[in-house]
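Researcher: Sequence recovery benchmark, item below. Answer with residues only.
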């Protein structure tokens, strides 16, 4: 494995705002998403879901459904085989297995799957399944004293210094309780699974962010070797985290296909998406922070409580951001989980930071006002120059530059500090800002690169592109590393038969995959050099990797373009059709490198306008200054930040999964009722990238998937405070909080 060569400083392809390489396929309908596939003889499935949140099934009558036209089978807990729970994954334990007994743990729990010749027949028959429930009182409220409370399940609570002494020494202390609601991921593409058995082998199309996890999970559950399973997800219609875990409906589709001996397709309905594929769990956070009169943070205490489903183990440490965001000597963060009769949560768009940052950055703003300091100045003053928990220098951290450049672009200096002091006609104008970070998350990844006799390259890994631009940026990266035009490089993904890739999630895929592609491409160049090592005809004879440069389809001695030859010539002379090499990346380790592996940082500046009589709130400007390390493609990275910002506006002003407290029913499980921002809610947004390639990895990216969302809700809340003098402590911010 090679590590030495770096990406050329004379950037050609990397960073360029290349159009998405998959765009023509998408706009012409040639990109096939999981629910676009069909097979001859394919049957269709529909789910029956519980309409109660807790209790048991007293009786279930499937006779009418069984007798309905086209029905092939109805599977319930009475005739389902016993299935093991899925395996432990890198993201934690799998969700509980479906249809294993008569217990109901949440509203929307799958209680039957019906398979019929057509989708309409399956849905109709599903409506004929009669279920008699015996309800018990459901635990649905985070404050319910009867609920089980889990303490620090993943050992992520933190403590440093002496928090009590810190508060005693502080001149100014503020504290508050912040709440965030359940949110639902809602990718546009309804999640779909197609399962096709062929003897003991299985092919699955699935709306997953992680094909290898689906393969490993199904292998464990159905007790077949992983080599007998192929999971395909070349295009996925969005994810937002909903496709990270392998959910019970995937298991049910595979099971149904085995039962009926035919290929089976299941497409979730939009209401089913609200109970079947995770959600951001709600949180209650108490935060207290104190500073000296001069403006130095002295103590932070952040307690988070969030919710989790019965028998599930998903977890988000919402308070952890308070341990790593500022230089502060005395900090305690603690997280608790309350077990309720709710659908399984899961990661959703900046899990943990999305909620925790709202409390932290609102409290920081409140403290700055209490001190009479500019909140920008206060943040700059308390910048963490080294990692506050590890005491190590950052591998990169341009947060201060984010603040300065963002403030300049936004015109922060125009702000008058007094709340309510800026007006435009009837509108109160508010400026708010928030700092943001999203931690580094890296796991091992593999890729394979090939160059063919015709001079084209083919690079692949079993990753996914959930709309974020993976195809495009990996094409650019491979093109740069192999010295080829992007039109000569094809990057393929979304197939578990390809080399191992981790999930598209945690803002970690571009880093893990990029470094694997880097390793594969440089290894491939070395393979070419190995071929010509003793070749008396080659100007590259005995050249080492460090001696050469690649460009225009050729390898040549660095500084001497004439001393080289093309991939094509080398392959032809050696009678080879292609040459391939594998590469892998491993996560950089802080202890080995003597530096704290940094994630992305950012500063969000927001202008709001509020009509104080009507309670109208408009977000009118957003500037995001982002340190994402190396930016592989300015255009797709900007889109990521814009998309994250829109998600942040949704979190701040609209999104709220409403649970009926009597029944546990999700009361707004449609796109008509679950509010998300529309174009009229979204202003023009400025995105600027600052900082340098991160030192910890060869490619130096830090991930821009989630930092776009983090901080937006707090910046909006802080702008509302500046406009009105009212502190927003509960999301979403609604009219009643403004009147
Ligand atoms: Mo992201 S919530 O890790 O898909």
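Model:
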């Amino acid at each position: 494995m090679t590590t030495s060569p770096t990406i050329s400083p004379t950037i050609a392809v990397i960073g360029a705002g290349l159009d998405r390489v998959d765009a023509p396929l998408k706009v012409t309908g040639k990109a096939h998403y999981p629910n676009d596939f069909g097979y001859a003889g394919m049957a269709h499935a529909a789910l029956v879901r519980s309409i109660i949140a807790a209790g048991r099934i007293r009786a279930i009558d499937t006779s009418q459904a069984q007798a309905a036209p086209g029905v092939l089978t109805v599977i319930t807990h009475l005739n389902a085989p016993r299935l093991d729970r899925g395996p432990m994954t890198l993201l934690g334990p799998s969700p509980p297995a479906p249809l294993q007994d008569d217990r109901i743990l949440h509203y929307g729990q799958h209680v039957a799957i019906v398979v019929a010749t057509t989708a309409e027949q399956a849905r109709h028959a599903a409506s004929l399944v009669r279920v008699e429930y015996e309800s018990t009182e459901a635990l649905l409220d985070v404050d319910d004293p009867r609920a089980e409370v889990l303490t620090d399940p993943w050992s992520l609570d933190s403590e440093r210094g002496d928090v009590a002494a810190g508060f005693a020494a502080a001149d100014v202390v503020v504290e508050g309780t912040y709440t965030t609601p359940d949110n639902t991921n809602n990718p546009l593409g309804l999640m779909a699974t197609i399962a096709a058995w062929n003897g003991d082998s299985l092919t699955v199309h699935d709306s997953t962010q992680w094909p290898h996890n689906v393969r490993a999970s199904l292998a464990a559950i159905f007790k077949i070797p992983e080599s007998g399973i192929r999971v395909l997800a070349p295009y996925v219609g969005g994810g937002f985290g909903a496709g990270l875990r392998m959910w019970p409906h995937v298991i049910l589709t595979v099971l149904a296909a085995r039962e009926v001996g035919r290929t089976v397709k299941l497409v979730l309905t939009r209401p089913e998406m609200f109970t079947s594929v995770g959600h951001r769990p709600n949180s209650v956070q108490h935060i207290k922070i104190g500073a000296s009169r001069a403006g130095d943070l002295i103590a932070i205490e952040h307690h988070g409580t969030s919710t989790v489903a019965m028998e599930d183990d998903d977890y988000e440490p919402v308070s952890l951001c308070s341990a790593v965001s500022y230089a502060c000597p005395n900090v305690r963060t603690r997280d608790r989980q309350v077990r309720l009769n709710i659908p399984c949560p899961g990661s959703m768009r900046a899990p943990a930071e999305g909620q925790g940052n709202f409390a932290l950055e609102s409290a920081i703003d409140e403290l700055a006002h209490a001190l009479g300091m500019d909140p920008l100045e206060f943040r700059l003053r308390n910048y963490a120059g080294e990692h506050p928990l590890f005491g190590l220098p950052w591998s990169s951290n341009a947060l201060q530059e984010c603040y300065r450049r963002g403030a300049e672009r936004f015109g922060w200096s125009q702000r008058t500090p007094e709340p309510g002091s800026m007006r435009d006609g009837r509108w109160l104008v508010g400026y708010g800002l928030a700092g943001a970070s999203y931690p580094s998350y890296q796991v091992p990844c593999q890729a394979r690169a090939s160059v063919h006799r015709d001079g084209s390259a083919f690079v692949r890994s079993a990753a996914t592109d959930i709309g974020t631009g993976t195809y495009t940026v990996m094409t650019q990266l491979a093109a740069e590393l192999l010295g080829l035009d992007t039109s000569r490089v094809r990057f393929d993904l979304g197939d578990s038969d390809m080399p191992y890739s981790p999930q598209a999630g945690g803002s970690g895929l571009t880093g893990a995959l990029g470094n694997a592609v880097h390793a594969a491409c440089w290894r491939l160049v070395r393979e070419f050099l190995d071929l010509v090592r003793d070749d008396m005809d080659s100007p590259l004879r005995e050249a080492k990797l460090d001696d050469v440069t690649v460009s225009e389809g050729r390898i040549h001695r660095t500084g001497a373009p004439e001393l080289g030859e093309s991939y094509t010539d080398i392959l032809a002379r050696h009678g080879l059709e292609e040459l391939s090499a594998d590469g892998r990346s491993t996560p950089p380790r802080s202890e080995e490198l003597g530096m704290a592996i940094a994630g992305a940082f950012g500063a969000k500046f927001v202008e709001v306008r509020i009509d104080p009589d009507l309670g109208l709130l408009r977000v009118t400007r957003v500037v995001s200054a982002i340190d994402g390390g190396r930016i592989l493609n300015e255009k797709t990275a900007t889109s990521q930040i814009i998309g994250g910002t829109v998600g942040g506006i949704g979190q701040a002003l609209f999104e709220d999964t409403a649970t009926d407290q009597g029944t546990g029913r999700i009361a707004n499980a449609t796109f008509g009722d679950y509010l998300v921002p529309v174009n009229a809610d979204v202003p023009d947004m400025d995105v600027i990238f600052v900082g340098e390639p991160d030192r910890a990895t060869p490619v130096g990216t830090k991930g821009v998937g989630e930092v776009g969302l983090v901080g937006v809700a707090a910046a909006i809340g802080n702008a509302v405070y500046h406009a009105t003098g009212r502190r927003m402590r509960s999301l979403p911010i609604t009219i009643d909080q403004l009147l």
